[in-house]
Design a protein that fits this description.
Two copies of one chain form a homodimer.
Chain A: E1 3-10, H1 14-25, H2 27-34, E2 36-44, E3 49-56, H3 58-68, E4 78-79, H4 84-90, E5 95-98, H5 110-119, E6 123-126, H6 130-145, E7 150-151, H7 153-157, H8 163-169, E8 175-181, H9 184-196, H10 200-209, H11 218-221, H12 224-237, E9 248-249, H13 257-265, E10 268-278, E11 284-294, E12 308-313, E13 318-323, H14 328-342
Parallel strand pairs in A: 1-2, 1-5, 5-6, 6-7, 9-11
Antiparallel strand pairs in A: 2-3, 3-4, 8-10, 8-12, 10-11, 12-13
Helix pairs in contact in A: 1-3, 1-14, 4-5, 5-6, 6-12, 9-10
Chain lengths: 355, 355
């Protein structure tokens, strides 16, 4: 008999809908390999929500949203007046999947969603990093006090495993330093400059044309996004207490084609690297800057819009993880992973054919 | 209050003694960050064992062994007639750390140790891959039937995380293919051939002089070791049912300096790659062979005696892990990691300053 997990989803944008479709596509695998039946009991959106005590068909609900542009009019439990917060209070679910749009400054509405859910003992998995930029430590403590689990793999770098590598695969080792190539847009531009000899401006235009860079690329190319992610990862994995504004920051917009070319001649490859390191005083310091990495540095191979992270540890040496889908589907897969790891018995391997 | 975990260690070679020293060095961290007090209640060796209901000082015991060449005469609980199996039966421990020498063919004595421990409901962590080459599936099922956990991170690739990346960080994704650079000796030789232009024979001699290659390097350079590890990883992570002799195998001893040089001219780098892939019929096929990887392949950056593994998945894209200490200290760190992950509550983050 599969264990039943009742979930609700707040935010039904691209990540939320990808997650719903993934849930349906993976239902059989989850039952067979993990002994889990994940039931979708509601989805909350600003313009109306849907709730069903019988459980909703996830993929059909994503289709409905894409056709109707909202959920409030859904024939099976539409609630035009309800927002996500109402769903959290009323649905009686055991787990919240938080995928509302990220607000780095306030963390809302996700911050309120997550606090409310944890306060009711609900587990939370989040693709939204907003609430954790300033409140990771207090939210994690609040989760523990309420006997709930809080996981945010998808928020850190979608399907690239960063937090769970540090927390599970490097358990017992102290992480002395983190280096990350964490922004796909910047990395795409730098790769393009190196491979084609283009200027920064030309490579940016190309990235914008392809939909990789935004019209205003500031957050990506000036290192803000990298600083946000780096601070979050350092806070989770190194027990640091960094705010993004405490991360020193140099972007890539000042790099010239000549500098990139000259580095290449010396066998070095420019990446926008976020680096956090514990100093002799025990405090963690962090900085984002373009760095010319030698070709045999494991992050040198992280090409195009890919990402990667290197952990330097006391007892396990240096461990690097590279790759992982970084689109909404990758984020959805990371949300599902967090749910599975919350509901897995400690120490147990996969059940069924994997064990 | 720290949770107490009573452990015994079978095998007190370099890995076992490294583990004992690590246990002592990390005692404070384990109490503070994981809420665990790991007590060493006995160590078993062929030539005599030691057992103490009060717990033993791990580092002093390693010193004692190195001075006396055995444990049977230890003043505090030496048992000259006891072997590991007696300790498993008599010590009343909750967890076995298995680090006896590997016998790929029979799996003994570890196989009997592990079966006996699991049958008594003891958890097992193993740095010895021998028992799992032919019996992984039945041992894992036996563990589950007895409510015990069985983990073998250290057996697969020391501190390079392979199994737990697949099982935890890629949970919910199907692993379609594995590519691994899993043998440090072969990789050292290939790196040396590429960088110095040496022949295979010259590079091998250099590796032997440095203590990286054995006097008889067959197991490493002809791909047997890679095939063993690949079969094990595929069986654990892909639900395969491979025996090492079913893995096709081409070693590196036939590679000429000219071939390595020509590949370099084309921007390719030779690695001894173990590859397992699920075919259209659902069966997993595996093969070990030297491959000229393009420079931007994530395993191309795995230089010298380092290792790395790439997982190709259905929902998370391609994820590569590289690095990790591969010496006895790295294996010891992996054993400790497995113990921590067994004793961690599901979904819980690190306690203390990490949460």
């Amino acid at each position: 008999m599969a264990e039943q997990v009742r979930i609700i989803v707040c935010g039904f944008g691209r990540v939320g809908r990808s997650f719903a479709r993934l849930l349906e596509a993976k239902a059989e695998t989850l039952a067979r390999d993990y002994g889990l039946e994940i039931q979708l009991h509601g989805v909350g959106e600003l313009e109306g929500s849907v709730i069903s005590p019988k459980g909703l068909a996830p993929a059909a609900l994503a289709d409905y949203f894409e056709t109707h542009g909202g959920l409030g009019g859904h024939p099976e439990g539409g609630r035009p007046e309800w927002k996500g917060i109402d769903l959290i209070r009323e649905a009686g679910a055991g787990l919240l999947v938080e995928t509302t749009p990220t607000d780095i400054r306030t963390g809302e509405p996700a911050l309120t969603h997550i606090r409310t859910a944890l306060g009711r003992g609900m587990h939370v998995v989040s693709a939204n990093k907003g609430p954790f930029i300033r409140h990771y430590r207090t939210l994690q403590a609040f989760a523990r006090d309420n006997g709930a689990a809080l996981r945010l793999s998808a928020a850190a770098a979608a399907a690239l495993p960063t937090l769970d590598v540090a927390q599970t695969c490097l358990a017992g080792a102290e992480i002395l330093a983190i280096e990350g190539v964490l922004n796909g847009t910047s990395n795409y531009i730098l790769t393009e400059m190196r491979k084609s000899g283009r200027s920064y401006g030309e490579a940016l235009s190309e990235a914008q044309r392809l939909g990789i860079a935004e019209t205003d690329p500031t957050l990506d190319v000036e290192g803000h996004d990298t600083a946000n992610k780096l601070a979050l990862i350092a806070n989770v994995c190194m027990g640091a207490d960094l705010l993004p504004e405490q991360v020193g920051r140099t972007g890539i917009s000042g790099l010239t084609a000549e500098e990139v070319h000259a580095a290449g001649e010396e066998g070095r490859i420019f990446r926008l690297v976020g680096r956090a390191e514990r100093g002799p005083d025990g405090a963690v310091r962090a900085r984002v800057a373009p760095m010319g990495l030698p070709r045999d540095h494991p992050l040198a191979a992280v090409d195009g819009a890919e990402k990667g992270i290197t952990y330097t540890t006391d007892t396990m040496g240096r461990v690097t993880v590279v790759g992982g889908k970084s689109d909404p589907k990758g984020a959805a897969a990371a949300l599902l992973k967090d749910i599975l790891n919350i509901h897995r018995a400690p120490g147990a391997a996969r059940s069924g054919r994997y064990s």
